[in-house]
Amino acid sequence: MTTLFELPKLKFAFDALEPAIDARTMEIHHDKHHGAYVNNLNKALESAPEFYGQPIEQVLRDINKVPESIRTAVRNNGGGHANHSLFWELLVPGGAKTPASALLTDIEKTFGSYDAFTEKFSAAAASRFGSGWAWLVLDGDKKLQVYSTANQDSPYMDRHTPLLGLDVWEHAYYLTYQNRRPDYIKAFWSLVNWDVVSDLYKSNR
Ligand code: MN
């Protein structure tokens, strides 16, 4: 039996993140944008159905094993599926908590302070030209890194594990913020579910 990739359900209502992220943006972003990545991923893999049963993270880690004729489609749509599936988990109504102690200690050791980390992450998000994502990851040496990627490129393709990600495609913020990406980035910090980020850190460290 073929197990197609599926659009995960949101664990909160479309309007739960207002005013930071408006309901219409959440509905279009989840149902239409993420939905399209899932559909296009499934379509691309029709010629290589052996990938259907694999976790998307594994497909991306081994992206070079995907046949060249569909590799770009899998990179874009598989990356989009993985990135958004994580993103929805990272957002929580009313957020504004801080990392658990082990992660906080590592953040302070790596970036100097929690504030220095959020500044670096925000700068990565603000300076990504065009569409992409900002990330906090664990790299291959289990060290924390902050950087951004273009389009739907995933840290998994570099064998890194994403812990925190911010979508800076215009579709993520345009209805409320138009060209004011820095305001969207600032609002994002009030939504971060640090419990999820801290758990990801603990289970991958
Ligand atoms: Mn998006």
Characterize the structure shown.
With 205 residues, this protein is mainly alpha-helical. It folds into 2 domains: 23-90, Fe,Mn superoxide dismutase (SOD) domain (Helix Hairpins), CATH 1.10.287; 101-204, minor pseudopilin epsh fold (3-Layer(bab) Sandwich). It contains 8 helices and 3 strands; from the N terminus they run αααααβββααα. The protein has helices at 23-44, 56-61, 68-90, 101-111, 114-127, 174-177, 181-188, 194-204; strands at 132-138, 144-150, 161-167. Strand 1 (132-138) and strand 2 (144-150) form a beta hairpin. The relative contact order is 0.16. The model has no long low-confidence stretch (mean pLDDT 96). The structure holds manganese (II) ion (MN).
SSE blueprint and pairings:
Blueprint lengths: L22 H22 L11 H6 L6 H23 L10 H11 L2 H14 L4 E7 L5 E7 L10 E7 L6 H4 L3 H8 L5 H11 L1
Antiparallel strand pairs: 1-2, 1-3
Bound molecules: manganese (II) ion.
Short key terms for the protein model shown above:
single chain, about 200 residues, mainly alpha, Helix Hairpins, minor pseudopilin epsh fold, three-stranded antiparallel beta sheet, 8 helices, about 50% helix, binds manganese (II) ion
